[in-house]
Amino acid sequence: MNAALELSAFRGLPVWELPAAHYLLMIQAGAFALLAGCASRALGLGSFAGPRRWGVLAGAGLVLAAPLNLVAELLSPQRFASMLYRPHLTSPLSWGVFAILALTWLGLIECLLLFRPGTGERPPSRLVPRLSSLAALGVVVYTAIEIGNAKGVAPWSGVWPLAALAFSGLAAGLAVCLGLARLARLAGGDADAEPLPRLILAWACLLSGLALLGWAGLAARPVFSVWPQAMVLPALSVAAFLLASAFARGRSRARLAIACWLALAGAWAARVAVLAVGQAAALGRDPGEPLLTGLAGHAGFLTAFAPMAFWILLMLAASIALGRLPGLAVRPEGQEGGS
Hints:
The protein is mainly alpha-helical. It has a single domain, classed as Formate dehydrogenase/DMSO reductase fold (Up-down Bundle). About 70% of the residues lie in helices and about 0% in strands. It has helices at about 5-10, 20-45, 50-65, 65-75, 80-85, 90-115, 125-150, 160-185, 195-220, 220-225, 230-250, 255-280, 300-325. The chain is globular and about 55 Å long. It starts with a helix and ends in a 15-residue tail after the last helix.
């Protein structure tokens, strides 16, 4: 067993390794991507036309693939499946499994309603988008509770880590929507047609950088006094977010693509930093030990990155299907029917 896991079992403390960071990134980005896609349809926000389609598709894929990180993280992978047929109403993990499953099913239903043949022949219902929006908000709240309720990890408590993860999750979700819409040219081939999503992305990145800076300067300051080298990863994340905020503004398509990549990189680095730095003191690490040592843990780097690779394969398959299979092409926004 991993030494950190042995120490955690002895002290009753959580040990969240690289798969946990990937889980937080994928589940929060997927929830916010679905929220952007479904809320825009439920509220009739036409400025989200292109990102909405890929927000629903990419968000559903992320939420579907994210639990694979939990399966890799648990020493007993069958424990995740047991939550389905032996739920414990007093266990936060059981409620989390049900919240993720509800969002997954609603996201898949939204995909079928959005991409099935004949979409433009009848007005779309707003019931599923509204339910999906509520489920996405529920998953976001649940992940915040997961972090905030961790006992014995002082840098995870308070508003700063929750704000950093929430804003960076919003930035990552919008980056996925806008980035895929840009690649697939589903936004009409004109980046200027989406000013509102780009503006929200810019503000989300700016607030992510400021929140992470506040976390590093206040909540995690005692850790940095012992492990000064640990400041590198949060600093890189803050820089990525601030650059992404600057690049997201304007009308250049190339700048938008750069902003999306920087936002995703910043969101990944923020989660790795919060988890690694937050656990350092609680796990009794030696001040001279690099905090990223053994970060992949028992799962290994290949297993840690496998769910992300699975999601990329899902997006490639969806792109091929939408481009080649008859009847699955997405209708233009004006032909999807009334509200």
